[in-house]
Amino acid sequence: MKFGVNFFPVVDPAAKSATAYYDETLRLVELAEALDFEHVQTVEHYFTGYGGYSPDPVTLLTAAAARTSRIRITTGAVVPAFTHPVKLAGKLAMLDHLSHGRLDVGFGRGFLPTEFAAFGIDMDESRARFDEGVEACRRLWSEEDVVFEGRFHRFGPVTLLPRPYQAPHPPIFVASATSAESCEAAGRAGHHLQIVPSVTSAEQLAAMLTRYRAAWDSAGHDPAARRIQIKYTCYLSEDAAEARRQGEFYERSYIDLMTHAVAPLADSASADYPGYEKFLEKAKNYDFGSSLKANKVFAGNPSDVRAQISRMRAEYGTDMTVSLQFNPGGMAFAHAARAMELFAAEVAPEFTDEPAAA
């Protein structure tokens, strides 16, 4: 099992400036490579403290690539509905070169009504725009003289420059929050998967993974090539009680900022997002203790977190990479860095054959 580091900036600007967040994130990126984490990744969101410090993940990941040489650079995820595919494919191909082939591209549909409204896009088109955008990028990366005739975009013949560093293209991941159908489609297409257990039940997530793996195998793709990333926030300290105190404080901050961002969902039911209108109710009823008991967040001392990861493996399987957020909200840099060091030294070796970095 491999472990990476996830940067989802759920940050109140009053608690930490954008400059401070970026500076600290890039220092943590350098530390992640020194500690032999497998990847670093970030999201695409706009306007609010719920991810709004990362409106362009490619920009932040380009800076991360410049400061590192081994760790993989991952979008988790970019939203093709918000960018013309020729532009998006070109930006990502550049990043693939700037990182010397370390790029993994996660694509997501987006789900916040304010973001779709700002781009003038109907949320009921999100699935169709997602499918079209991913396919357009894949073709632009892997083919020449591309003529594309889609529902939303028509172009060509064009040949993208630069061609991607990785042939035929960077690994493609599909981010899925709750949709088993999206997971099945990703497996059938041979795309990798990004999932978030905090927004669904263990039973629903297990069913999503079952359909993904079955579709991958039925399509004849190599099982050894399949990659699944599962994302958790991790509060880790030698003092378990202190880790849980941090967890309760920063998870409450996360929920408060998320509640503000998802509030429009209550009035924006969409056929492409069945059940998403209930996100606001779920956020208002959030309880850290229940989330910890349900294994949706990691918190405690190294022994506690090792036990949680063992439980996760038993529930969801061992063929996945765990992407961990160590710096939620306005957490001080020193706390996040210490948690990463502690994880690399006392948690990761339990699940990998690689020794922890000195």
TrEMBL record:
<feature type="domain" description="Luciferase-like">
    <location>
        <begin position="1"/>
        <end position="272"/>
    </location>
</feature>
<dbReference type="GO" id="GO:0004497">
    <property type="term" value="F:monooxygenase activity"/>
</dbReference>
<keyword id="KW-0560">Oxidoreductase</keyword>
<dbReference type="GO" id="GO:0005829">
    <property type="term" value="C:cytosol"/>
</dbReference>
<dbReference type="InterPro" id="IPR050766">
    <property type="entry name" value="Bact_Lucif_Oxidored"/>
</dbReference>
<dbReference type="Pfam" id="PF00296">
    <property type="entry name" value="Bac_luciferase"/>
</dbReference>
<dbReference type="InterPro" id="IPR036661">
    <property type="entry name" value="Luciferase-like_sf"/>
</dbReference>
<dbReference type="InterPro" id="IPR011251">
    <property type="entry name" value="Luciferase-like_dom"/>
</dbReference>
<keyword id="KW-0503">Monooxygenase</keyword>
<protein>
    <submittedName>
        <fullName>Putative monooxygenase</fullName>
    </submittedName>
</protein>
<dbReference type="GO" id="GO:0016705">
    <property type="term" value="F:oxidoreductase activity, acting on paired donors, with incorporation or reduction of molecular oxygen"/>
</dbReference>
